[in-house]
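Exercise: predict the fold of this chain.
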Amino acid sequence: MSEAASTRTPVALLPSLTPLLHEWLPRQRWFAGKGRPVAGFLLVSAAELLPVDSTGPGLLHLLVRVQQPGPAGGKGASTKATTRETADCYQLLLGVRTTLPPHLASALIGRVTSGPLAGRAVYEGLHDPRLAALLLERLRTPGRFGPLRFDRAAPVRGGLPARVLDAEQSNSSLVYGDSYILKIFRRVYPGINPDLELPLALARAGCDRVPAPVAWYESDAPEPCTLGVLQPYLRGSQDGWQLALKALADGRDFTGEARALGRATAEVHTALAAALPTVSLGRPQTEHLATAMNERLDAAVRAVPALLPYVRGLRTAFDAIADAGPGGAGRAQRGQHSQRIHGDLHLGQALRTPDGSWSVIDFEGEPARPLAERRRVQPPVRDIAGMLRSFDYAAHSHRPWNPAWAARCRAAYCEGYADASGTDPRAEPELLRAYETDKAVYEVVYEARHRPDWLPVPMSAIQRLALPGG
């Protein structure tokens, strides 16, 4: 690959795109800065994956920092702190054409009026089958392309048709034929993404519950970061969320599936503990956990005042794991261990394959949390709490609400986990309650910002968890 061919993008490029990005970026599902004005853009790196010329489409790869006023300040924040700027980095893959064909009209970002692309149409490149195919070809050939580095763990088939997955979340995904799925990280951070790091470790450990990465690409500018991961596409699979909703609609029991999913979770945790370092939880660690949970609660109350009446009760869940006095509940946590975990486990992150087995996907962790935090070792019960919350979400999405269905699934999931691991997560109720509470607080903030109609779901859990014994 030619280094020169990937670095011809003029310095004037970003200023010419700025008016279009101001309008387009805040509307994207994966843009994290919604509700705050965009103050400006900084170009981190640029590469022409397909040169822009007059004969056909070009493909620009950009890493762009988006400058915005920071969110409302944290504990003890001053007025000055509330107006500090943040600069999240986003990965953009922009198609460029002189004339946009009708089938790409919905992907249009806008037409550039000045600069090196003046008069050209700029659009979301992933929706162009020709450009999506080019990205697969780059992944098939390890090596460097300007600031980008492509690598692979196994041969990659070429010539496969590409389609964008409709269900866009915090990232974008391309499916190639029925063979591969490429996750493209939109908001990028320095360091290896856990959605590459952990599946690679699990593949080396021989764990077949997680699709092993086939290829990936990264950037070195200004420091290494993971940009995309290609994995096998599990054709014919159904995600646990849709399966749970169907079971509820049919009035069908879901405990068998929940128990099997608990076993799968335990197998993944066991393999991660064997492949990567673990640490024991002592008094400083449990106190740190409780402090961090209380701080997140403080921030959540500022963002969603509806939490205020429940703060005292919610704090009891966090304080219980830090209470190391005589007879204190916190003593029970010592001897537990922390390890690498999934970090954002719920029914939508589990796929049941046509043979009836469960696979676990999407090890990125909660995208709103800093990458360094997502890569820390944590108690496995955090993943378990996330899945238990997911059963509650499913039950609430059905009318009438079916709390007994959720309770049976929660129990079956824990039983399956205990069968496979030898450790029942319900044996440490204080730690489990604390993590369930922490997750529900996170959900309240998320729903208030992104899906206000769903806010009653986590708020019902908040009301329960704030009661003595949760």
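Check your answer against the key: The first helix runs from residue 13 to 24.
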